[in-house]
TrEMBL record:
Residues 471-480 have a biased composition (Gly residues). It comes from the Eukaryota. Residues 394-462 form the J domain. SMART domains: DnaJ (SM00271), TPR (SM00028). This is DnaJ homolog subfamily C member 3. GO terms for cellular component: endoplasmic reticulum. It comes from Electrophorus electricus. Keywords: Coiled coil, Disulfide bond, Endoplasmic reticulum, Repeat, Signal, TPR repeat, Unfolded protein response.
């Protein structure tokens, strides 16, 4: 590359002698030939970027050689850069109007871009070219005639698609456009029309698949970038929406519509990201406040309201505000009945409220929507265990405390109930037996709920005092936590409670 620079510099210096100029020309020709050869080898090896660099040098060294432009265009096409190839093909044709291969190649590109008239002119020019080698002409004419027919077909398809769209037959328009886009995949107009038809049919994601390339097929297609950003925004894909609207502003930072939408997307996206970061840091109350802000920022797009309610529901469960969580989860469930995360969180709210039957129902419903989800499966098993235990003994209900009660609240409830149900407070034998049973349950509940390990087992659906769950046996005390019943007939054990 530096050698070519030197050659060009030498040719541009007028003070060199004729002998030096001739030497420079010979050196330049050699340089160009070397670059063309290296470009050819690298292109064959698939090293396109390196090949392109050599063809750049060859073109710079000899701007009058139509073949160097044509070969560089071939590299651009191999790299998928048809828009960059077009100027080189045009320059090659300007330098050599009867260059058949360049005209065919340019016509093919123009046809794929949907430029029917320009493509037709290139193909017709090839047909009219004189002094063409017989065999080459036969192959070229066959290809060109086929392309001319495709151009005619494309023109008819475009007209038919527009008519179908105007009369509101969007399904028919899409079917026609499918064939049109097969012929001209780089035509932004056909893709935008098909995208509009998909939008009318309520299929925005298919519209996005067309708008994404269409926005980039023109040098300035701000309208497509704006439409694409709005579609993504409505679907809740705020990061994608922000990315596309920034592309619009790169084309014109003063575009009023793009800038107004950009401000809205940026504000909402920042709030959503901040809320999720707070949740990851377990700052649930702050996250709730942030999601409240989300609903105020965007009250008109259903996705964001539903998302905010879903996440607020999750946070309320985490901070054990069961009643509020249940209300919020139910609102979110009405909006999105098949959302397994909402069903999971509402089930957890029901567990906090000790309504295990409904917790099981929600987990079962979530399981129907996602059979493979391990979290849902484990949650269902735990809810079923809790339901089974609750039908035997629920230690929280025995003491009359919530599942979120702390140790101090549990001991306070225990003392009150133990004093109330102490057997010595009753006279008749039947009342004493009933009181003994109650007293044993109260003592068992206190033992389990004040021991962190036992309480965790109970909360996970296992009764640590259930003989079925014990290993190694130990005494015949039944359900009495200390292995014996002090109220049993014949027991020599006596004790006295002092209540503060």
């Amino acid at each position: 590359f530096l050698l070519v620079r030197l050659c060009v510099t030498q040719l541009n210096e007028s003070y060199f002698s004729p002998v030096t100029d001739c030497t420079a020309v010979l050196l330049l020709v050699t340089c160009i030939e070397q670059h063309l050869e290296m470009g050819r080898k690298l292109l064959a090896a698939g090293q396109l970027a390196e090949a392109l660099s050599h063809y750049h040098s060859a073109v710079e060294g000899d701007s009058k050689n139509y073949l160097t432009y044509y070969k560089r265009a071939a590299v651009f096409l191999a790299m998928g850069k048809s828009k960059s190839a077009l100027p080189d093909l045009t320059r090659a044709i300007e330098l050599k109007p009867d260059f058949l291969a360049a005209r065919i190649q340019r016509g093919n590109i123009l046809l794929k871009q949907g430029n029917i008239q320009e493509a037709r002119e290139d193909f017709q020019a090839v047909v009219k070219l004189p002094h063409c080698p017989k065999f080459a002409c036969f192959l070229s004419f066959s290809e060109v005639l086929n392309q001319l027919q495709r151009a005619e077909e494309l023109e008819e398809l475009q007209e038919e698609a527009h008519q179908a769209s105007h009369r509101g037959d969007y399904v028919a328009a899409i079917q026609v456009l499918d064939r049109a886009i097969e012929i001209s995949p780089w035509d932004p107009e056909s893709r935008e029309l098909r995208a509009e038809c998909y939008i009318r049919l309520g299929e925005p994601r298919k519209a996005i698949l067309d708008l994404t390339p269409a926005a980039r097929l023109l040098n300035d297609n701000r309208a497509a970038f704006l439409k694409l950003s709005r579609l993504l925004y409505d679907l809740g894909e705020h990061h994608g929406s922000l990315s596309e609207i920034r592309e619009c502003l790169k084309l014109d930072q003063d575009d009023k519509e793009c800038f107004a939408h950009y401000k809205q997307v940026k504000k909402l996206s920042k709030q959503l990201d901040s809320a999720e970061e707070l949740i990851s840091e377990q700052q649930y109350q702050e996250a709730i406040e942030k999601y409240d802000s989300v609903m105020r920022t965007e009250p008109n797009i259903p996705f964001y309201t539903t998302k905010a309610k879903e996440r607020i529901c999750f946070c309320l469960v985490k901070i054990k505000q069961a009643e509020e969580a249940l209300d919020m989860c139910s609102e979110a469930h009405q909006r999105e009945p098949q959302n397994i995360h909402i069903l999971r969180d509402r089930a957890e709210a029901y567990i906090l409220l000790q309504d295990y039957e409904k917790a099981v129902e929600d987990y079962q419903e979530a399981r129907e929507f996602d059979q493979e989800n391990q979290e849902i499966r484990e949650g269902l098993e735990r809810a079923q265990k809790l339901l089974k235990i609750s039908r035997k003994r629920d230690y929280y209900k025995i003491l009359g405390v919530s599942r979120t009660a702390n140790k101090q609240e549990i001991i306070k409830a225990y003392r009150k109930l133990a004093q109330q149900w102490h057997p010595d407070n009753f006279q008749s034998e039947a009342e004493k037996k009933e009181a003994e049973k109650k007293f044993i349950d109260i003592a068992s509940a206190k033992e389990v709920l004040t021991d962190p390990e036992m309480r965790q087992k109970f909360d996970s659906g296992e009764d640590p005092l259930d003989p079925e769950n014990q290993q190694g046996g130990g005494g015949g005390g039944g359900n009495w936590p200390f292995g014996f019943n002090p109220f049993e007939s014949g027991s020599n054990f006596h004790f006295k409670f002092n209540f503060n």
